[in-house]
Structure prediction request, 281 residues.
Amino acid sequence: MPGGTATVTAGSSVVPVFFLSDSTGISAETMGDALLLQFPGLHFERTLIPFTATEADARAAVAVLDEAVRGPVRPLAFTTTALAPICEILHTSACPLIDFFDLHLSRVEQLLGTSGVRRPLRLHGVGDVRRYNARTQAVEYAIEHDDGGSLRALDKADVVLLAPSRCGKTPTTMHLALQHGVLVANYPLLTEDLETTDLPRPVRDLGSRCFGITTTPLRLSQVRAERRPGSRYSTREQCSWELSRAGRLYAAHGLPVLDSSTTSVEEMSTVVLQHLARRPS
Prediction:
């Protein structure tokens, strides 16, 4: 084995994992993590090496990888680097390298009967100016309308997320905006909103665009205690009451409900997108 390193078994040492990219590394991390999740018995130490866009950057990355190879556990690296000269240098490393870009682009080129441009950044959407601008506008909209911060142009929202405080509205909002260009507003359900099953007045006419978010009283209490320890706001009783009343409100209006205690932000966003795809145009 290279450098005398050893393979690992469940419960053994931490496996060094590297994600390399000529851009931000988001795609390399996402695709690599999708594979690593299939090994729940192993522990990974993740290192991101983004913006590997020059030959000097590539040689520096190889030095990092080769240093890791000299450790006690064989490392692993994933890359989505598009530029051929950079890829060639990266492949000189003794570290095992999984090249998503080359593996899949070569196959797509074969199927389409034409060569791809193999340029950096296109993998992350910058090459599609319209999509990139839509995502930028969606992020600006999400920031303005976070936690009921603004009611301006609320009718422009594709989605309105409703939930008691700290249930996961903001992360879901930002993921939908940044990754998918969806215009999302989120609105906090306050005590006065939960005393009735009516939708809050600012979103009363937007019921068809509303989604409810829930969680467990224990989880909500733990999250709130980090923000306001020892307060009534963070007690199990208060959290249980708010979630129960929110559930009644969601049911009264037939709102789709996302459970942030058992579902990741990415999964909740996918559920929202599926609902949007089924929505009549």
